[in-house]
TrEMBL record:
Gene that encodes it: pheS
Cofactor annotation remark: Binds 2 magnesium ions per tetramer.
Main localization category: cytoplasm
One term of GO molecular function: ATP binding
Protein's UniProt name: Phenylalanine--tRNA ligase alpha subunit
Coiled coil segments of this chain: none
GO BP, one annotated term: phenylalanyl-tRNA aminoacylation
Superkingdom classification of source: Bacteria
Cofactor(s) this protein cannot do without: Mg(2+)
PANTHER family: PHENYLALANINE--TRNA LIGASE, MITOCHONDRIAL, PHENYLALANYL-TRNA SYNTHETASE
Compartments (UniProt record): Cytoplasm
Protein EC: 6.1.1.20
Chain sites annotated for binding Mg(2+): E266
Domain Aminoacyl-transfer RNA synthetases class-II family profile positions: 113-325
Length: 346
């Protein structure tokens, strides 16, 4: 029996390295440990062992069983590891870049804003920012806007409830909170912070109770510009705007200043642009925004001496410029997050 057991162990030891699949392993295991297996037969043979040899043979049989079980366990572990590796496929190198990574791109409005900023930075303007949530004083009073001006109407401007308590917004008095309806608020904040000369642009989001259509949105973007120095004239304003439109729309683009009214500028103009480089839109006047010479009352509100300082200001719609540059015929495309639209600008 001793030899029989040793032969079984030798057989198992030599057979298991060749077993690669679970089915083959189970089939082989059955020939050893199954009901008709060799080890099972050896165990059955215990009854024929003489009584005095039984303890020694029983011990040997147990040891043999444990030895064979250990070989089974190791074989099964190896087969399972191979199965897992097969499921996972070829080994991966986690340090390689992902082959099909979807890289993002800048939104067309961000691209347009950056284009506009780059043009103004080239000629010495710096970017100033202000809060979207504002107070009535910064949005209207300081900008010389009379109490009864229609822009102050709750039908045009989004006011916050009286009781709203808002952190992080500098208040000037006890005026109401509102969502800023233009970026001209940043003129005031910049002038209150710094002494002239001053040359800033301020891009940002603004809010109005406008009904949405192809060219209007209740929430859009503007870029404000402000220059304060001694002896600034309309000629300087026209020159900077001519420079700007040539940078954005190409050579031959020019600006027309059309008389208008804004409470914070005197004189005030609508700012129109014409360019030969726009296909169907070429050579016709297109409105970009408003502008004018800073009203002396605005200087008084921020503590600048209007006898000493002069300046110009302008405000343009960023959507408007993006639509003209790219030939987009509906402002709503900008806000729908439709990849078919956005990917055209990637
Ligand atoms: C203003 O907001 C003035 N603050 C501009 C200004 C600044 C004048 C400094 C003088 C000195 P206005 O309301 O016209 O002006 O808006 C300026 C531009 O914003 C418009 O020409 C247009 O391009 C854009 N705009 C106005 N309303 C909307 C809207 N609902 N949706 C999209 N763009 C708009």
């Amino acid at each position: 029996m001793k030899e029989q057991l040793a032969a079984i162990v030798t057989e198992v030891e030599s057979a298991v390295p060749a077993l690669e699949k679970r089915a083959a392993f189970e089939a082989f295991k059955a020939t050893i440990s199954g009901p008709n297996g060799k080890l099972t037969a050896a165990m059955k043979g215990m009854k024929d062992v003489p009584k005095e040899d039984k303890p020694a043979m029983g011990k040997l049989l147990n040891e043999t069983k444990q030895q064979i079980e250990a070989l089974y366990a190791a074989t099964l572990e190896r087969i399972e590891a191979a199965e897992t590796a097969e499921k996972l496929g070829p080994p991966i190198d986690p340090t390689l870049p992902c082959p099909d990574i979807a890289s993002g791109s800048l939104h067309p409005l961000t691209q347009t804003r950056r284009l506009m900023e780059a043009a103004f930075r080239k000629v010495g303007f710096t970017v100033a920012e202000g809060p979207e949530l504002e107070t009535e004083w910064f949005c209207f009073d300081a900008l010389n806007t009379p109490e009864d001006h229609p822009a102050r109407d709750a039908q045009d401007t989004l006011f916050l409830p009286e009781a709203a308590a808002v952190d992080n917004v500098t208040k000037h008095g006890s005026e109401r909170y509102l969502m800023r309806s233009h970026t001209s608020t940043v003129q005031i904040r910049a002038m209150m912070k710094e002494e002239p000369p001053l040359r800033i642009i301020s891009p940002g989001r603004v809010f109005r109770r406008d009904t949405t259509d192809a060219t209007h949105s209740a929430n859009f973007h503007q870029m404000e510009g402000l220059y304060v120095d001694k002896n600034v004239t309309v000629v300087d304003l026209k020159a900077i705007l001519d420079y700007f439109v040539a940078e954005i729309f190409g050579k031959g683009s020019t600006v027309r200043l059309r008389p208008s009214f804004f409470p914070f500028t005197e004189p005030s103009f609508e700012l129109d642009m014409k360019t030969p480089n726009l296909g169907k839109l070429s050579n016709q006047w297109i409105e970009l925004g408003g502008c004018g010479m800073v009203d002396p009352n605005v200087f008084r509100h921020v503590g600048y001496d209007p006898e000493k300082w002069t300046g110009y200001a302008f405000g343009m719609g960023i959507e408007r410029i993006a639509m003209i540059v790219h030939g987009i015929d509906d402002i709503r495309y900008f806000y729908q997050n439709d990849l078919r639209f956005l990917q055209q600008f990637a």
